[in-house]
Amino acid sequence: ETEDNREWLCSFEQIRALLETLLPTDRDARILIIGTGNSDLGADLHREFGFTNVLCSDYSETCLTRMNSKHAALAPAVRYVYGDMLDLGASFAEASFDLVLDKAGFDAIVGDGGADKWEPTDAARDAASKLSRSVGHVLRDGGRFLQITFSQPHFRKPLLLAGAALPWVGCEAHAVDVGLGYVCLACDRKKR
Length: 192
Prior knowledge:
Oligomer: single chain
Strand order of the largest sheet: 3-2-1-4-5-7-6
Strand content: 25-35%
Structural class: alpha/beta
Number of strands: 7
Helix content: 25-40%
Distance between the termini: 41 Å
Radius of gyration: 16 Å
């Protein structure tokens, strides 16, 4: 209710160069940021790169109200809307986005307090499967999912890529040389 801004893991400036290589070249691309909280990433994508269709979603009405007020001058290019990252189909139509971006939102869900840090819990596996299906549902064929995470690729990729019905054609890992050394996973949506 009172925190103005919180950038988990890294700031926009710290990932700007990486984003330039991974984001769509079309500035009218439909972008969905999931688990946005009170991050300014969506506003930065508009102000710094000129994207005109950025939806920032979260399940916290408090964050959404605060961020819509804070960035009212950027609407309709940047808007803050309700969305549960594990069930995006409840809020958004199938194949309605060119890019879905998660910056540490899923980290909060998958860090479920399991005792064995080398082996994911059943809850973490289930959440990752739901996330992949959920994001895959709202991405157009060939669309891209970017996940910036503290989890290293040998832990996170198997979670996102497990299961026969998952939507990814591949998943590349890109280093984010900030803090402890984070990762940006870029997964492309296969054809339906």
